[in-house]
Write a structure and sequence with these properties.
Elements lengths: L4 H54 L9 E3 L2 H8 L7 E2 L2 E2 L5 E7 L4 E5 L13 E7 L2 E10 L4 E8 L1 H48 L16 H51 L3 H33 L7 E3 L1 H11 L1 H6 L3 E5 L7 E3 L1 H18 L5 E10 L6 E9 L30 H11 L3 E4 L11 E7 L1
Protein backbone atom coordinates (compact mmCIF):
# COMPACT_ATOMS: atom_id res chain seq x y z
CA UNK A 1 0.00 0.00 0.00
CA UNK A 2 1.43 3.34 -1.04
CA UNK A 3 1.17 6.35 1.25
CA UNK A 4 1.30 9.98 0.28
CA UNK A 5 4.45 11.98 0.89
CA UNK A 6 2.54 14.29 3.23
CA UNK A 7 1.34 11.34 5.34
CA UNK A 8 4.84 9.88 5.45
CA UNK A 9 6.43 13.16 6.53
CA UNK A 10 3.72 13.83 9.09
CA UNK A 11 3.94 10.33 10.57
CA UNK A 12 7.75 10.46 10.63
CA UNK A 13 7.95 13.89 12.28
CA UNK A 14 5.24 13.11 14.82
CA UNK A 15 6.88 9.78 15.67
CA UNK A 16 10.20 11.49 16.34
CA UNK A 17 8.51 14.29 18.30
CA UNK A 18 6.44 11.80 20.31
CA UNK A 19 9.47 9.68 21.18
CA UNK A 20 11.39 12.80 22.21
CA UNK A 21 8.44 13.96 24.33
CA UNK A 22 8.19 10.55 26.02
CA UNK A 23 11.91 10.60 26.73
CA UNK A 24 11.79 14.14 28.13
CA UNK A 25 8.68 13.33 30.18
CA UNK A 26 10.20 10.20 31.70
CA UNK A 27 13.46 11.98 32.35
CA UNK A 28 11.65 14.90 34.02
CA UNK A 29 9.38 12.55 36.01
CA UNK A 30 12.30 10.49 37.34
CA UNK A 31 14.30 13.59 38.20
CA UNK A 32 11.29 15.24 39.87
CA UNK A 33 10.51 12.15 41.91
CA UNK A 34 14.13 11.97 43.02
CA UNK A 35 14.14 15.61 44.08
CA UNK A 36 10.79 15.27 45.93
CA UNK A 37 12.13 12.23 47.80
CA UNK A 38 15.25 14.16 48.76
CA UNK A 39 13.23 17.13 50.06
CA UNK A 40 10.88 14.95 52.12
CA UNK A 41 13.76 12.81 53.41
CA UNK A 42 15.58 15.93 54.56
CA UNK A 43 12.42 17.19 56.30
CA UNK A 44 11.93 13.80 57.95
CA UNK A 45 15.49 13.82 59.25
CA UNK A 46 15.18 17.41 60.42
CA UNK A 47 11.92 16.61 62.27
CA UNK A 48 13.62 13.67 63.98
CA UNK A 49 16.52 15.85 65.17
CA UNK A 50 14.17 18.56 66.41
CA UNK A 51 11.98 16.01 68.22
CA UNK A 52 15.07 14.37 69.74
CA UNK A 53 16.32 17.70 71.12
CA UNK A 54 12.95 18.56 72.68
CA UNK A 55 12.34 15.14 74.20
CA UNK A 56 15.72 14.88 75.88
CA UNK A 57 15.18 18.21 77.63
CA UNK A 58 11.83 17.21 79.12
CA UNK A 59 11.90 13.41 79.59
CA UNK A 60 13.99 11.19 81.80
CA UNK A 61 14.55 8.14 79.66
CA UNK A 62 15.52 5.97 82.64
CA UNK A 63 12.48 6.42 84.91
CA UNK A 64 9.48 6.17 82.57
CA UNK A 65 7.36 3.06 83.00
CA UNK A 66 4.95 2.45 81.35
CA UNK A 67 5.82 4.34 78.13
CA UNK A 68 4.38 7.74 77.54
CA UNK A 69 1.83 8.22 74.76
CA UNK A 70 1.39 11.62 73.23
CA UNK A 71 -2.39 11.88 73.52
CA UNK A 72 -3.23 13.70 70.28
CA UNK A 73 -6.33 11.65 69.47
CA UNK A 74 -8.73 14.57 69.37
CA UNK A 75 -6.20 16.67 67.55
CA UNK A 76 -5.68 13.99 64.89
CA UNK A 77 -9.44 13.46 64.67
CA UNK A 78 -9.99 17.12 63.93
CA UNK A 79 -7.28 17.08 61.27
CA UNK A 80 -8.80 13.95 59.73
CA UNK A 81 -12.09 15.77 59.10
CA UNK A 82 -10.40 18.18 56.67
CA UNK A 83 -11.28 17.68 53.01
CA UNK A 84 -8.84 17.43 50.11
CA UNK A 85 -9.75 20.97 49.08
CA UNK A 86 -9.19 22.31 52.60
CA UNK A 87 -6.09 20.54 53.87
CA UNK A 88 -4.91 23.50 56.00
CA UNK A 89 -6.64 24.80 59.17
CA UNK A 90 -5.63 26.80 62.26
CA UNK A 91 -4.99 23.45 63.94
CA UNK A 92 -2.37 22.39 61.44
CA UNK A 93 -2.17 20.35 58.22
CA UNK A 94 -3.94 17.20 57.18
CA UNK A 95 -0.62 15.52 56.34
CA UNK A 96 0.24 15.44 60.08
CA UNK A 97 -2.06 12.43 60.42
CA UNK A 98 0.41 10.52 58.26
CA UNK A 99 3.32 11.09 60.66
CA UNK A 100 4.26 8.92 63.66
CA UNK A 101 7.23 8.42 65.95
CA UNK A 102 8.65 6.13 68.65
CA UNK A 103 11.42 6.62 71.23
CA UNK A 104 13.18 3.42 72.32
CA UNK A 105 15.95 2.59 74.73
CA UNK A 106 18.79 0.51 73.41
CA UNK A 107 17.68 -2.42 75.61
CA UNK A 108 14.32 -2.57 73.74
CA UNK A 109 12.25 -0.53 76.22
CA UNK A 110 9.66 1.79 74.58
CA UNK A 111 9.86 5.22 76.20
CA UNK A 112 7.48 7.33 74.13
CA UNK A 113 5.27 7.00 71.06
CA UNK A 114 2.71 9.03 69.17
CA UNK A 115 -0.98 8.06 69.40
CA UNK A 116 -1.01 6.64 65.85
CA UNK A 117 2.18 4.63 66.37
CA UNK A 118 1.97 0.99 67.55
CA UNK A 119 3.62 -0.39 70.67
CA UNK A 120 5.70 -2.84 68.66
CA UNK A 121 8.93 -1.77 67.10
CA UNK A 122 8.38 -0.19 63.63
CA UNK A 123 11.82 -1.01 62.26
CA UNK A 124 15.15 -2.44 63.33
CA UNK A 125 17.50 -0.36 65.47
CA UNK A 126 19.68 0.80 62.61
CA UNK A 127 20.43 4.44 61.94
CA UNK A 128 19.32 5.88 58.62
CA UNK A 129 16.45 5.75 56.14
CA UNK A 130 14.27 2.75 55.31
CA UNK A 131 11.02 2.02 53.52
CA UNK A 132 8.71 -0.17 55.59
CA UNK A 133 5.17 -1.64 55.47
CA UNK A 134 2.73 -0.73 58.26
CA UNK A 135 -1.08 -0.92 58.35
CA UNK A 136 -1.01 -2.14 54.70
CA UNK A 137 0.66 1.07 53.62
CA UNK A 138 4.18 2.05 52.68
CA UNK A 139 6.07 4.32 55.10
CA UNK A 140 9.40 6.08 54.98
CA UNK A 141 11.32 5.83 58.25
CA UNK A 142 14.33 7.63 59.66
CA UNK A 143 16.06 6.22 62.74
CA UNK A 144 18.22 8.58 64.83
CA UNK A 145 20.64 6.89 67.26
CA UNK A 146 21.91 8.68 70.41
CA UNK A 147 24.82 6.57 71.66
CA UNK A 148 25.40 8.72 74.79
CA UNK A 149 21.80 8.30 75.97
CA UNK A 150 21.49 4.82 74.52
CA UNK A 151 18.27 5.56 72.70
CA UNK A 152 16.79 5.26 69.20
CA UNK A 153 14.24 7.73 67.84
CA UNK A 154 12.17 6.36 64.92
CA UNK A 155 10.16 8.86 62.89
CA UNK A 156 7.95 7.58 60.04
CA UNK A 157 6.03 9.26 57.26
CA UNK A 158 3.40 7.74 54.98
CA UNK A 159 4.59 7.70 51.36
CA UNK A 160 1.16 8.86 50.15
CA UNK A 161 2.28 12.35 51.21
CA UNK A 162 4.90 12.25 48.48
CA UNK A 163 2.68 10.74 45.80
CA UNK A 164 0.25 13.66 45.76
CA UNK A 165 2.74 16.37 44.68
CA UNK A 166 4.34 13.95 42.24
CA UNK A 167 0.90 13.16 40.75
CA UNK A 168 0.10 16.85 40.46
CA UNK A 169 3.46 17.54 38.80
CA UNK A 170 2.84 14.63 36.42
CA UNK A 171 -0.58 16.02 35.47
CA UNK A 172 0.95 19.45 34.90
CA UNK A 173 3.64 17.89 32.71
CA UNK A 174 1.10 15.89 30.68
CA UNK A 175 -1.25 18.80 30.05
CA UNK A 176 0.99 20.47 27.41
CA UNK A 177 1.44 17.12 25.65
CA UNK A 178 -2.31 16.45 25.50
CA UNK A 179 -3.00 19.89 24.10
CA UNK A 180 0.24 20.30 22.14
CA UNK A 181 0.26 17.11 20.06
CA UNK A 182 -3.10 17.74 18.29
CA UNK A 183 -2.10 21.38 17.78
CA UNK A 184 1.27 20.28 16.40
CA UNK A 185 -0.51 17.77 14.15
CA UNK A 186 -2.69 20.49 12.66
CA UNK A 187 0.20 22.94 12.18
CA UNK A 188 2.48 20.31 10.61
CA UNK A 189 -0.29 19.14 8.27
CA UNK A 190 -0.78 22.69 7.07
CA UNK A 191 2.95 23.51 6.77
CA UNK A 192 3.85 20.25 5.02
CA UNK A 193 1.02 20.83 2.58
CA UNK A 194 2.36 24.29 1.80
CA UNK A 195 5.88 22.90 1.46
CA UNK A 196 4.71 20.20 -1.00
CA UNK A 197 2.64 22.62 -3.07
CA UNK A 198 5.53 23.37 -5.51
CA UNK A 199 5.89 19.62 -6.14
CA UNK A 200 2.19 19.50 -6.95
CA UNK A 201 2.70 22.41 -9.36
CA UNK A 202 5.54 20.53 -11.08
CA UNK A 203 3.45 17.36 -11.37
CA UNK A 204 0.52 19.35 -12.79
CA UNK A 205 2.82 21.07 -15.27
CA UNK A 206 4.10 17.69 -16.46
CA UNK A 207 0.62 16.17 -16.51
CA UNK A 208 -0.81 19.00 -18.61
CA UNK A 209 2.01 18.84 -21.16
CA UNK A 210 1.29 17.55 -24.64
CA UNK A 211 3.64 14.75 -25.82
CA UNK A 212 4.95 16.99 -28.58
CA UNK A 213 5.81 19.83 -26.19
CA UNK A 214 9.38 19.31 -24.99
CA UNK A 215 10.11 22.92 -24.08
CA UNK A 216 11.64 23.62 -20.62
CA UNK A 217 9.29 23.82 -17.64
CA UNK A 218 9.30 27.19 -15.88
CA UNK A 219 7.68 27.48 -12.43
CA UNK A 220 8.05 30.66 -10.41
CA UNK A 221 8.96 30.72 -6.73
CA UNK A 222 10.52 27.30 -6.41
CA UNK A 223 12.65 26.59 -3.34
CA UNK A 224 16.38 25.98 -3.95
CA UNK A 225 15.90 22.25 -3.21
CA UNK A 226 13.30 21.99 -5.97
CA UNK A 227 15.23 24.07 -8.48
CA UNK A 228 17.60 21.13 -8.92
CA UNK A 229 14.61 18.92 -9.81
CA UNK A 230 13.39 21.48 -12.32
CA UNK A 231 16.89 21.80 -13.79
CA UNK A 232 17.33 18.03 -14.06
CA UNK A 233 13.87 17.64 -15.60
CA UNK A 234 14.55 20.37 -18.15
CA UNK A 235 17.91 18.78 -18.96
CA UNK A 236 16.10 15.48 -19.54
CA UNK A 237 13.54 17.19 -21.79
CA UNK A 238 16.38 18.84 -23.72
CA UNK A 239 18.16 15.51 -24.23
CA UNK A 240 14.90 13.86 -25.21
CA UNK A 241 14.19 16.64 -27.68
CA UNK A 242 17.66 16.31 -29.20
CA UNK A 243 17.28 12.54 -29.40
CA UNK A 244 13.91 12.78 -31.14
CA UNK A 245 15.28 15.36 -33.56
CA UNK A 246 18.28 13.16 -34.30
CA UNK A 247 16.06 10.15 -34.79
CA UNK A 248 13.77 12.12 -37.11
CA UNK A 249 16.73 13.44 -39.07
CA UNK A 250 18.25 9.98 -39.18
CA UNK A 251 14.98 8.46 -40.41
CA UNK A 252 14.59 11.11 -43.10
CA UNK A 253 18.19 10.69 -44.27
CA UNK A 254 17.93 6.91 -44.20
CA UNK A 255 14.75 6.96 -46.27
CA UNK A 256 16.42 9.27 -48.75
CA UNK A 257 19.57 7.16 -49.00
CA UNK A 258 17.66 3.89 -49.41
CA UNK A 259 15.54 5.36 -52.17
CA UNK A 260 18.47 5.37 -54.64
CA UNK A 261 19.59 1.70 -54.34
CA UNK A 262 15.96 0.52 -54.26
CA UNK A 263 15.21 2.51 -57.42
CA UNK A 264 18.30 1.01 -59.06
CA UNK A 265 17.20 -2.48 -58.06
CA UNK A 266 13.81 -1.89 -59.64
CA UNK A 267 15.29 -0.46 -62.83
CA UNK A 268 17.83 -3.27 -63.26
CA UNK A 269 15.21 -5.93 -62.58
CA UNK A 270 12.87 -4.38 -65.16
CA UNK A 271 15.70 -4.12 -67.69
CA UNK A 272 16.57 -7.77 -67.10
CA UNK A 273 12.98 -8.76 -67.78
CA UNK A 274 12.75 -6.89 -71.10
CA UNK A 275 16.28 -7.69 -72.32
CA UNK A 276 16.24 -9.48 -75.65
CA UNK A 277 19.77 -10.84 -75.61
CA UNK A 278 21.43 -13.06 -73.00
CA UNK A 279 24.41 -10.70 -72.68
CA UNK A 280 22.16 -7.70 -71.92
CA UNK A 281 20.22 -9.74 -69.41
CA UNK A 282 23.43 -10.89 -67.71
CA UNK A 283 24.67 -7.31 -67.55
CA UNK A 284 21.41 -6.18 -65.94
CA UNK A 285 21.60 -9.03 -63.44
CA UNK A 286 25.18 -8.09 -62.52
CA UNK A 287 24.10 -4.49 -61.99
CA UNK A 288 21.12 -5.75 -59.99
CA UNK A 289 23.45 -7.76 -57.75
CA UNK A 290 25.65 -4.71 -57.18
CA UNK A 291 22.60 -2.62 -56.26
CA UNK A 292 21.44 -5.31 -53.82
CA UNK A 293 24.91 -5.42 -52.23
CA UNK A 294 24.90 -1.64 -51.90
CA UNK A 295 21.44 -1.65 -50.30
CA UNK A 296 22.43 -4.49 -47.96
CA UNK A 297 25.57 -2.68 -46.84
CA UNK A 298 23.64 0.58 -46.37
CA UNK A 299 21.01 -1.15 -44.22
CA UNK A 300 23.69 -2.89 -42.12
CA UNK A 301 25.46 0.41 -41.49
CA UNK A 302 22.17 2.14 -40.67
CA UNK A 303 21.42 -0.49 -38.06
CA UNK A 304 24.94 -0.21 -36.63
CA UNK A 305 24.73 3.56 -36.45
CA UNK A 306 21.26 3.43 -34.86
CA UNK A 307 22.55 1.15 -32.09
CA UNK A 308 25.60 3.36 -31.52
CA UNK A 309 23.53 6.53 -31.37
CA UNK A 310 21.36 5.09 -28.58
CA UNK A 311 24.41 3.84 -26.65
CA UNK A 312 25.43 6.48 -24.10
CA UNK A 313 28.22 4.64 -22.30
CA UNK A 314 29.54 1.18 -21.48
CA UNK A 315 31.98 -0.50 -19.16
CA UNK A 316 35.49 -0.37 -20.62
CA UNK A 317 36.71 -3.30 -18.57
CA UNK A 318 37.40 -5.72 -21.44
CA UNK A 319 40.94 -6.15 -22.67
CA UNK A 320 41.22 -5.69 -26.41
CA UNK A 321 44.17 -7.14 -28.30
CA UNK A 322 44.42 -4.78 -31.26
CA UNK A 323 46.90 -6.90 -33.21
CA UNK A 324 44.70 -9.99 -33.13
CA UNK A 325 41.60 -7.91 -33.88
CA UNK A 326 43.27 -6.21 -36.86
CA UNK A 327 44.33 -9.57 -38.37
CA UNK A 328 40.80 -10.95 -38.01
CA UNK A 329 39.24 -7.97 -39.81
CA UNK A 330 41.84 -8.09 -42.58
CA UNK A 331 41.12 -11.80 -43.08
CA UNK A 332 37.38 -11.17 -43.36
CA UNK A 333 37.92 -8.51 -46.08
CA UNK A 334 40.57 -10.50 -47.95
CA UNK A 335 38.23 -11.40 -50.82
CA UNK A 336 37.14 -7.80 -51.35
CA UNK A 337 40.74 -6.59 -51.36
CA UNK A 338 41.77 -9.41 -53.74
CA UNK A 339 39.02 -8.58 -56.23
CA UNK A 340 40.31 -5.01 -56.43
CA UNK A 341 43.92 -6.22 -56.41
CA UNK A 342 44.67 -3.88 -53.51
CA UNK A 343 47.82 -4.33 -51.45
CA UNK A 344 47.42 -4.20 -47.67
CA UNK A 345 50.33 -3.67 -45.25
CA UNK A 346 49.73 -4.42 -41.58
CA UNK A 347 52.43 -3.24 -39.14
CA UNK A 348 51.89 -4.57 -35.59
CA UNK A 349 54.64 -4.53 -32.88
CA UNK A 350 55.66 -7.88 -31.41
CA UNK A 351 55.26 -6.69 -27.79
CA UNK A 352 51.87 -5.01 -28.01
CA UNK A 353 50.00 -4.60 -24.73
CA UNK A 354 46.18 -4.78 -24.78
CA UNK A 355 43.95 -1.77 -24.22
CA UNK A 356 40.69 -1.46 -22.30
CA UNK A 357 37.53 -1.14 -24.34
CA UNK A 358 34.77 -3.02 -26.10
CA UNK A 359 36.04 -5.75 -28.40
CA UNK A 360 33.00 -5.78 -30.71
CA UNK A 361 32.91 -2.01 -31.17
CA UNK A 362 36.61 -1.67 -31.90
CA UNK A 363 36.28 -4.56 -34.36
CA UNK A 364 33.46 -2.61 -36.04
CA UNK A 365 35.73 0.45 -36.15
CA UNK A 366 38.46 -1.56 -37.93
CA UNK A 367 35.97 -3.00 -40.40
CA UNK A 368 34.46 0.33 -41.39
CA UNK A 369 37.85 1.98 -41.83
CA UNK A 370 39.07 -0.91 -43.98
CA UNK A 371 35.90 -0.95 -46.08
CA UNK A 372 36.07 2.82 -46.49
CA UNK A 373 39.75 2.61 -47.55
CA UNK A 374 38.99 -0.21 -49.99
CA UNK A 375 36.04 1.65 -51.56
CA UNK A 376 37.91 4.90 -52.15
CA UNK A 377 41.29 3.41 -53.05
CA UNK A 378 41.60 2.62 -56.75
CA UNK A 379 42.26 -0.89 -58.03
CA UNK A 380 45.83 -2.07 -57.47
CA UNK A 381 46.14 0.66 -54.84
CA UNK A 382 47.79 0.36 -51.44
CA UNK A 383 46.47 0.47 -47.86
CA UNK A 384 48.57 0.52 -44.70
CA UNK A 385 47.57 -0.03 -41.09
CA UNK A 386 50.03 0.61 -38.28
CA UNK A 387 49.71 0.24 -34.51
CA UNK A 388 52.07 2.33 -32.38
CA UNK A 389 52.29 2.11 -28.59
CA UNK A 390 54.33 4.32 -26.29
CA UNK A 391 54.51 5.42 -22.64
CA UNK A 392 53.62 9.06 -21.96
CA UNK A 393 54.70 9.43 -18.31
CA UNK A 394 56.41 7.67 -15.42
CA UNK A 395 53.10 6.34 -14.03
CA UNK A 396 52.98 3.74 -16.81
CA UNK A 397 50.25 5.54 -18.72
CA UNK A 398 50.32 4.55 -22.37
CA UNK A 399 48.96 5.75 -25.66
CA UNK A 400 48.08 3.32 -28.42
CA UNK A 401 47.65 4.88 -31.86
CA UNK A 402 46.08 3.31 -34.94
CA UNK A 403 47.03 4.87 -38.29
CA UNK A 404 45.20 4.20 -41.56
CA UNK A 405 46.75 5.36 -44.83
CA UNK A 406 45.79 4.68 -48.45
CA UNK A 407 46.66 5.75 -51.95
CA UNK A 408 43.20 7.10 -52.74
CA UNK A 409 42.19 10.65 -53.65
CA UNK A 410 42.41 11.90 -50.07
CA UNK A 411 40.43 14.68 -48.39
CA UNK A 412 41.09 18.39 -48.35
CA UNK A 413 41.90 19.77 -44.88
CA UNK A 414 38.95 22.20 -45.02
CA UNK A 415 36.54 19.29 -45.58
CA UNK A 416 38.04 16.98 -42.97
CA UNK A 417 35.32 17.52 -40.31
CA UNK A 418 32.51 17.05 -42.82
CA UNK A 419 33.49 13.49 -43.74
CA UNK A 420 32.46 12.23 -40.28
CA UNK A 421 28.90 13.46 -40.72
CA UNK A 422 26.19 10.97 -41.60
CA UNK A 423 25.52 10.32 -45.31
CA UNK A 424 28.40 12.56 -46.38
CA UNK A 425 30.25 11.27 -49.46
CA UNK A 426 33.30 13.19 -50.57
CA UNK A 427 33.38 11.61 -54.03
CA UNK A 428 29.94 10.07 -54.52
CA UNK A 429 30.56 9.18 -58.13
CA UNK A 430 33.69 7.18 -57.44
CA UNK A 431 32.31 4.59 -55.00
CA UNK A 432 29.10 2.97 -53.85
CA UNK A 433 29.39 3.96 -50.17
CA UNK A 434 26.45 5.28 -48.18
CA UNK A 435 28.44 7.88 -46.27
CA UNK A 436 27.94 6.12 -42.92
CA UNK A 437 31.23 4.31 -42.31
CA UNK A 438 33.18 7.24 -40.89
CA UNK A 439 30.16 8.33 -38.82
CA UNK A 440 30.25 4.91 -37.18
CA UNK A 441 34.01 5.23 -36.62
CA UNK A 442 33.56 8.67 -35.05
CA UNK A 443 30.87 7.42 -32.65
CA UNK A 444 32.92 4.41 -31.53
CA UNK A 445 35.96 6.63 -30.93
CA UNK A 446 33.78 9.02 -28.90
CA UNK A 447 32.52 6.16 -26.72
CA UNK A 448 36.13 5.12 -26.04
CA UNK A 449 37.31 8.71 -25.42
CA UNK A 450 39.71 8.24 -28.32
CA UNK A 451 41.06 11.12 -30.40
CA UNK A 452 40.81 11.15 -34.22
CA UNK A 453 43.30 13.34 -36.08
CA UNK A 454 44.53 13.73 -39.67
CA UNK A 455 48.18 12.89 -40.19
CA UNK A 456 50.55 14.03 -42.92
CA UNK A 457 51.68 11.50 -45.47
CA UNK A 458 55.40 10.77 -45.18
CA UNK A 459 55.45 8.06 -47.81
CA UNK A 460 55.05 8.74 -51.52
CA UNK A 461 52.98 5.59 -51.90
CA UNK A 462 50.36 6.66 -49.34
CA UNK A 463 49.22 10.10 -50.39
CA UNK A 464 45.48 9.62 -49.96
CA UNK A 465 43.29 9.63 -46.87
CA UNK A 466 45.45 9.38 -43.73
CA UNK A 467 44.22 9.53 -40.13
CA UNK A 468 45.16 8.35 -36.64
CA UNK A 469 43.04 7.19 -33.70
CA UNK A 470 44.69 7.46 -30.27
CA UNK A 471 43.55 5.51 -27.20
CA UNK A 472 44.91 6.73 -23.84
CA UNK A 473 45.00 4.21 -20.99
Amino acid sequence: MKHSLRTFLLASILSVVFLCMVFFFLSTYIQTRHEVDEVYDSQLAQSARLLHALLLRNIDTNSIDPPLVFDDEQYLKNLGTLSDDDEISPLGHFYETMLSYQLWRQDGKLILRSKNAPEEQLTAFQAGFKTIQFKQKSWRSFTLQDKQQGIFLIVTEQLDIREEPISELTENLLAPYIVGIPTLLFILWHLIGRGLHPLINISQAIKNRQPSNLEPIQIEGLAPELLSIETALNALLSRLKDTIEREKSFTDDAAHELRTPLAQIKIHSQNAQVSKSESDRQLCLNLLEQSVDQATRTIEQLLQLARLQSLQSFQQNDTVHLGKLARQQVAQLHDQLSQRQQHLELDVPDQLLPIFGNDLLIGLLFRNLLENASLYTPEKGAIRIRIIQENIDEKEKRETTLTFEDSGPGVEEAKYDAIFQRFHRENPGDANGAGLGLSIVSRIAELHAAKISPIPSLDAEYTGFCLSITFAH
